[in-house]
Design a protein that fits this description.
The protein has about 110 residues and is α+β, with helices and mostly antiparallel strands. Helices cover about 35% and strands about 45% of the residues. A hairpin with a 5-residue loop joins strand 3 and strand 4. The chain is elongated and about 50 Å long.
Length: about 110
Amino acid sequence: MIVTTTTAIEGYKITGYYGIVFGEVITGVNMFKDLGAGIRNLVGGRSTGYEQELTNARQEALAEMEQRAAAMGAHAIVGVDIDYEVLGADNGMLMVTSSGTAVTVEPL
């Protein structure tokens, strides 16, 4: 499956549109990663625990979106956008959503 942020795919012609597809993931960051991030906030540096959670959530959201597009019969997803949000100030839940337009394509 071709997944792109652009509205066209070089070397391909879009032959059908199936609508907007989404992938959503809401994940919690465990207490130890949260503690490590708090220390990093005080002393500086990167929070690898949070970065890994973010990477995993993004990959899961994209995979879910691809599965939904494939179930519609699409070959590709164009115009992909990924959004991130923290849910609740105190609970540390991370929401990652991906969206795009499911399409069929054929080579030019």
